[in-house]
Amino acid sequence: MTDPLEIGGVAPPARRPLALSASRAADFRQCPLLYRLRAIDRIPEPRTRAQVLGTVVHSVLEELYGLEQPERAPERAAGLVPAAVDRFYELDGGTEVVPHAARPEFEAEVSALVSALYGVEDPRRFSPAACEQYLVTATSAGTPLHGYLDRVDLAPTGEVRVVDYKTGRPPNPRYQDQAMFQMRFYALMYHRIHEVLPAQLKLIYLKNGSWLTLSPDLATLVATESELDVLWSEIERAGRAGVFPPRTSRLCDWCNHQALCPAFGGTPPEYPGWPGSRAVPGRDTLPGSPISEEDER
After folding, report:
1. I want to staple 152 with a disulfide (CB 3.0 to 4.6 A). Which of 130, 144, 215, 286 is the partner?
2. In Å, how far are 13, 25, 64, 155, 286 from 135, measured between CA atoms?
């Protein structure tokens, strides 16, 4: 075969191997076609107000915990908000998502969510071991995993707590186990890398100042690992066969890809082929990320 560069062509860019995040795992469970369009085809999606709200709030909380403990008063937290919103407009070009005319309302919502943290915990009482930490690892069977941890707390006695903030509404009690799936995913990654079992997983809903907690045991992590291995095997089989059927549900009403979905009379793009798995060591931590943090909010 002739090298396209030898005849003046341009070689296609290398396709990035895949790894499983909590968001992409949820996508495949919800609808295999949605997973394909997001993870394999990488079809662009418009950013939503909810996504950018979560991103700005998380950036404020990360900056807050970067201050010395006595400086983390509610007034100081509120003072961090305008600059964070400025960065959103300057760096992200976000006027198509939140027009400048809507900035006062948007900024007020960011401030309210940041303030709500003080109803759950006082940031002046402790300092996290890490904020916005990106982890890459694999299960013992080789399923590649990656994702962001919003916060890791380390007690003086050595116990670890993994914390995640949510800016949306808390789930119906019937779906709380689904909500904690993401936290079990994070706990497994942390355990695989550090060989330490988190003592607590805490999911904080800033919208109403509520939270969910789970104290995982090894059996919980073993079950989660097995669950992810089975799911990844299903994804790999679908990827090699190129078969990702749509699965309809009420969530289809909010899907951006109905025009590409056979269930709605659409046609998916030509399948580009399975890019394979990410080659990662069993325990690794990387400073950068091939996925968007907004995926995990």
Report:
1. 130
2. 25, 16, 22, 21, 6
